[in-house]
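Take a protein:
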Amino acid sequence: MRRFAICWNTVIRSFMKIRSILLIPLLALFGALSAQEGPGTVNIRMEGEGFDRFAEQVEAQTSLKLYYNARWFEGKTFSFQADSVTVADALYDLLKGTGLYFNQVGSDRIIILPEKRLSMNLPGISSTTGS
């Protein structure tokens, strides 16, 4: 009986070694695959087009929704070519010099405004009627 117990312990130790040897490459492979195309990573192709084309490409490739005032982009055209770029990096490059800034709200919304910071505080109301 004792001999069987020693053999069983050897089998368990061998199994644990094999499991850890297989687990490390699998985790590395998963990490490499997820780093290639993350949820905020996009491929953008636009040449002399309006900002709405950029927003369409981002929204088609991610779960993000971009909110902006279309008047702020009237008469402006953009050219941008990139593969596997984060949405934040692409927006930073695209909005440079426009006086517009972006803020991500939650995991699925990006708001573009002429201010650097989006105020998350609501104004106080002095009465129940709102006046």
